[in-house]
Amino acid sequence: MDIIFATNNAHKLTEVQAVLGPGYKLLTPRDCGVTEEIPEEQDTLEGNASQKAHYLHERTGMDCFADDTGLEVEALGGAPGVHSARYATDGHDFAANNRLLLKNLKGKANRRARFRTVISLLLDGEEHLFEGIVEGRIIDRETGHEGFGFDPLFIPDGYDRTFAQMTTGEKNEVSHRARAVRKLAAYLHSVEK
Ligand code: IMP
After folding, report:
1. CB-based contacts of 61: which residues, under 8 Å, 6+ apart?
2. How far apart are the first and last CA of the chain?
3. Facing residues of 72 across strands?
4. Is 50 touching ligand 1 by the criterion CB < 6 Å?
5. Is 77 left (phi over 0), alpha (psi -120 to 50) or beta?
6. Which residues are catalytic?
7. How many angstroms is it from 63 CA to the middle of ligand 1?
8. Has the keyword Metal-binding been applied to this entry (predicted)?
9. What is the DSSP string of 12-39?
10. How many angstroms separate the alpha carbon of residue 72 from the centre of ligand 1?
11. CA distance 85 to 21
């Protein structure tokens, strides 16, 4: 099955393709002629995932899905949450985001955090939402070079390494996105797509 995944992030594509397997050919917005930045202007993960999926569906008429992810840090009242991409600056500056997170957590004993992903699937024009969560903690300096975003600062529960010290396969065993994508895959199989 050909399906558009609303991302131009190569890390996300690799992760999601590995979970879905070879039965699904993931197309990027660019593959389908959508080259502009896809708007995500809502104040919830659900709202943003839905907005991105609808935007692509309206332009291409194809089945598609979009994900939106937030890092929710307990000691920061759930921040950066839906604002994770633009936490420190208006751009998607991962290094600046990580520096700001460490600054805001300085001296705080509670390091609990979780990643939450919401996926919006538009299949035959109908919307379906899937959620994935991984609980863990934020360490006090960047460790590891794999992955992207907050990966070098996040250790999932049950592990002693950050996501940035894991292969794609290891991250996919427990990650928020992989959990949401497995629900998406189960749904697609159930409707024989
Ligand atoms: P997005 O809007 O879904 O791309 O996610 C917002 C921000 O959350 C990104 O810019 C990253 O900083 C962060 N993020 C999303 N997914 C991950 C992940 O799997 N690991 C680490 N950081 C992530």
Report:
1. none
2. 7
3. 80, 114
4. no
5. left
6. 68
7. 23
8. yes
9. HHHHHHHHH-TTSEEE-TGGGT--SPPP
10. 11
11. 27
In 28-106, at which residue ranges do the beta strands (DSSP E only) sit? 64-73, 80-81
Nearest CA to ligand 1 atom 13: 149
Residue with tokens 């604002």: 83
Residue with tokens 């934020």: 138
Q: Is the CB of 92 under 6 A from ligand 1?
A: yes
Q: Is 49 helix (H, G, I), strand (E, B) or coil?
A: helix
Q: Which residue is associated with the tokens 């008429």?
A: 61
Is the model's pTM score more than 0.90?
Answer: yes
pLDDT of residue 192: 87
* Cβ–Cβ under 8 Å, residues 49 and 118: yes
How close is the Cα of 93 to the center of ligand 1, in Å?
Answer: 11
Ligand 1 lined by 84 (C-beta under 6 Å): yes
120 in ligand 1 pocket by Cβ < 6 Å? no
Collect the ranges in the chain with pLDDT lower than 50.
Answer: none
